[in-house]
Amino acid sequence: MISRLLILGLIGTLFSGAVRAQQASVGEARATAKEAYVYAYAMLENYQTFHKQVVDDKASEYVGGFGRFRHYAQAFTPENRDVVTPNNDTPYSWAWLDLRAEPWVVSVPAVPDERYYVMQWFDLFTHNFAYMGSRTTGNGAGNYLFAGPRWNGSVPEGIRQVFRAETEIVGTLTRTALVGPEDVPNVRAVQRGYRLQPLSEFEAFRPPAPAPSANFPAYDRSKARSEDFIGYLNVLLHFAQPPDPSEVDLMRRFARIGIGPGLPWDKSKLDPALLEAIKAGASDGQAAIDAQAAKTFDSGPLFGTRAFLENDYIRRAMGADKGLYGNSREEAWYGGFVGNGAKLSMMRFAADQLPPARFFWSLTLYTLPDRGLYANTEKRYSLGDRSKGLVYGPDGSLTVYLGHQSPGPSHEANWIPAPQGPYSLVARVYGPKPELLSGQWKLPPLEPVASSERP
């Protein structure tokens, strides 16, 4: 296998000199542009969030730059638009690290055994490369080292585990379980215990020279969905060197249409026929993503490490399209369906068929097509096994009602209000048990409420 050090030595040869787009034929350029567009799709969706949170200090989502947590100590509401399909169970804490100059140390406090939390770390490819929390490292206090692909220093004492990232910029979407509004002070106390320190600060050493300043262009959706996606991709590849051994040949192909780490993208200098081919390839790529999205309903295979995703870039794109920053399936299982709130419907869980969760489960309803929480007078956006007042049948079964119309006073405790039109329901199971991961357990189907059962 080619070593990453050898690859690093070849980078200059691979991408030196002027943009090599003229080497590609028109037909080759279109096919390569399609492949590159699909490859870049998740990365650019991630970049949109990164730019708002780290670069644009005027954005409402700004977290304060690198190396700072921004905590949300309450459940999401319809007004929160940072991400699509936000969960209403675990308030978020966001942070980003620049690993170029030195590693960072992430410290967590001792978290009460009954409280679930997870630190999900993702790279610029959107791979979930590291997990800390209740399932993986436990609820004890500890210090964890995060290092970039080029770091080769020694690990100091007091570090429980080292996580190596493929990219020099990484982010976390950390979730801390919340059990009702009265639990907010407890969540805040846990969040205050999350700490980020450069390695030099952790060791009380003189810090190294800072990394060079970087130019992060503003995110423009129209550019990201056109041939100009190449400009964004080139910026991101600069922070993803050396390439994974499995992608060396892919990067050589991409270089033939002007793609490479840090390369300038100036389409005015391209042959017009070649530029039209690249435009067509980008359009082909988006069409392929749209077609795949129309037939992708199971999100379980969409989130994980590079090894789990097996360089299946359309699958990676689906993860970004269906729910950016979804957890790997070992951490949380996702399922669901699309319904119509104009029709009062229900889901029936037999007593022995409740979601098999090690920690807890929930059902959250979203509007379509924006996939945000639905504003309703009940201010109820989800239900789950931690919901107060949930009514079970005498035999231990559970019926959940979904629709714009109330199911009646006797059933309202089990009702998730919906818009008059289409909606999406997402089931989340935290700490899924083997019967769920194996496919043995299935989410019950949505059934219409019989007229005799309506109020």
Q: Quaternary arrangement of the chains shown? A: single chain
Pattern of helices and strands: HHEEEEEEEEHEHHHHHHHEEEEEEEHE
Helical content stands at 25-40%
DSSP helical segment count = 11
Number of domains: 3
Low-confidence stretches: 1-22
Strand content: 15-25%
- Structural class designation: alpha+beta
Task: Choose one word for the global shape.
Answer: globular
How many extended strands? 17
Signal peptide: 1-21
InterPro entries: DUF1214 (IPR010621), DUF1214_C_sf (IPR037049), DUF1254 (IPR010679), DUF1254_sf (IPR037050)
Domain DUF1254: 67-198
Keywords: Signal
What do you see in this structure?
Residues 436-455 are annotated as: Disordered. The protein has 455 residues and is an alpha+beta fold. The chain has 3 domains: 4-50 and 218-294, no CATH class; 87-195, Immunoglobulin-like (Sandwich); 331-453, Jelly Rolls (Sandwich). The protein contains 11 helices and 17 strands. It has a 5-stranded antiparallel β-sheet with strand order 1-2-8-4-5. A hairpin with a 5-residue loop joins strand 4 (117-122) and strand 5. It is globular and about 70 Å long.
